[in-house]
Design goal:
The chain has 5 helices and 6 strands. The protein is an alpha/beta fold.
């Protein structure tokens, strides 16, 4: 009979916090070095807003998404419904049936884009990191975040969440540095080839796991 002492140890685990896409390429370089050394890498991403242009994450990374709960926030849902989705749906149905509906549809698309860039983001961006912090803290238990070895926060917007994790969980080393120094001495167990983000389009990105 196999006992607990006979089982191989679980791989060391790193959790990366990404609320924006500015650190994705650095994260991929880091994940590549981790994957070669058999270290398990998970990423918590806030892909509900402003993530469309994000490069694909390294295929070795287990990606968990906060998009669903972020987009269900009452004020955010109300804004998108009243300003973007509902008018677009009405104009789409009228297109080809009512004179000028096509022009109105294009005008609405431009106006909605202008409002999102110049009004919505100016109000929401300063508040987003705290809203996401509260959302993530209610869900990170599903990842057993307290048993991770490292929590890495390369994204300034995720710093409040990282601080909360450090206060609540003594085990993981919480850091902002994406460097593999603590794992440099680990032997390379999987000599995988480097992975170029620029060569992999967003259409190749597998679906994220909802958190």
């Amino acid at each position: 009979m196999t006992t607990a002492t006979d089982l191989p140890p679980l791989p060391e685990r790193v959790v990366i916090l990404l609320f924006g896409n500015g650190a994705v390429k650095r994260t991929n370089d880091y994940a590549y070095q981790m994957a070669r050394r058999g270290v398990r890498v998970q990423a918590v991403v806030a892909d509900g807003q402003g993530w469309r242009r994000a490069p694909s994450l390294h295929p070795s990374v287990e990606v968990y998404s906060l998009a669903g709960p972020e987009n269900r926030q009452p004020l955010l849902w109300l804004y998108e419904t009243l300003v973007e989705r509902a008018p677009a749906a009405v104009l789409r149905r009228l297109d080809g049936k009512v004179p000028g509906a096509g022009f109105a549809r294009r005008a609405h698309r431009k106006a909605a884009g202008f409002c999102r860039r110049n009004l919505f983001w100016k109000v929401y961006r300063p508040l987003r990191h705290q809203a996401l912090r509260a959302i993530a803290l209610r869900r990170l238990g599903r990842l057993d975040i307290g048993d991770a070895d490292h929590v890495v926060c390369p994204d300034p917007a995720a710093v409040p969440l990282a601080w909360s994790i450090a206060k609540r969980h003594p085990r993981p080393v919480v850091t902002r540095a994406l460097h593999y120094g603590p794992y440099r001495s680990h032997p390379v167990t999987a000599p995988i080839e480097p992975w170029d983000t620029d060569l992999h389009g967003k259409e190749d990105r597998p679906p994220y796991q909802p958190l």
